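RECORD TYPE: inverse folding
INPUT: structure tokens
STRUCTURE:
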């Protein structure tokens, strides 16, 4: 896993150089948003269950997915879906704190699309529910932190599609 600091340092190190001004700007931006990131992570942690519940209500409930024949039908599969959404929210929060998406590649997206395809988990509906989490989260943490979180929710969606 990388973070904004190691990403900048590793790329300078590969070239055997000190940090140039654009690398320093990136670090400065990251440090300036530190407080914002920590506050957003605390708010998300305290409201995770609510965020997921509202996102599910907006995107998945009352659709064919929750009826017989749908992939969320039966308590076991419904619970698996909620658990997956909790993974996405938690790992997007880690990535937002780190200011880097690499943790998503390593721990979430690796092999996920293949798993979903082999189990018949609908990817379009999954993306829709992640987009709903993005909206609900932004409503809770505010537009600036919401924009930061959006980067990583979108990253998961493009990794799935
Ligand atoms: C931390 C990284 C990580 C991820 C991301 C993860 C995902 C993941 N989701 C799975 C299943 C599943 N995922 C879903 C999810 C959904 N079905 C829908 O219709 C909805 C659209 C959607 C929820 C948004 C369902 C229903 C299953 C069970 C499918 C089945 O067994 O038939 C499985 C198969 C094994 C299992 O059932 O536990 C994995 C590996 N596991 C991990 O360790």
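DESIGNED SEQUENCE:
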């Amino acid at each position: 896993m990388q973070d904004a600091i190691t990403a900048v340092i590793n790329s300078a190190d590969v070239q055997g150089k000190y940090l140039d001004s654009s690398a320093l700007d990136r670090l400065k931006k990251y440090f300036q948003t530190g407080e914002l990131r920590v506050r957003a992570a605390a708010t998300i942690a305290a409201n995770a269950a609510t965020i997921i519940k509202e996102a599910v209500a907006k995107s998945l409930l009352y659709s064919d997915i929750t009826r017989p024949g749908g992939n969320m039908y039966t308590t076991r599969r419904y619970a698996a879906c909620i658990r997956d959404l909790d993974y996405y929210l938690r790992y997007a929060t880690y990535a937002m704190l780190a200011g880097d998406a690499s943790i998503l590649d390593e721990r979430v997206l690796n092999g996920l699309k293949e798993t979903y395809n082999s189990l018949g988990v609908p990817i379009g509906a999954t993306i829709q529910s992640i987009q709903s989490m993005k909206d609900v989260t932004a409503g809770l943490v505010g537009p600036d932190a919401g924009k930061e979180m959006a980067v990583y929710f979108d990253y998961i969606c493009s990794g799935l599609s």
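NOTES: The chain has eight helices and no strands.
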